[in-house]
Amino acid sequence: MAGTETGRFLKGQGIGVLLSEATPEGLEAMLGRMDQDRYRALKSRVLARNPRTWSYDRSDCAAFVEKLRGLTAMPSALAAAA
Known about the structure:
Layout: H1 5-13, H2 24-31, H3 36-47, H4 58-73, H5 77-81
């Protein structure tokens, strides 16, 4: 879906097929006209991306937890105002 965070990510990466509406007609309109050349082009654009774009390991998770921990340690503007 074009209007979602995932859609914006895919658009920013220049990959994927974005639907303007989640309907059978929208899906048929987008995929019904796809031929082998278009499919191959889409596939090669995805494969050209760094594989780390699609997977995370333990160190990524640890870094994310540390980032979240830092956010909870900061006093919020609302708490400071109270």
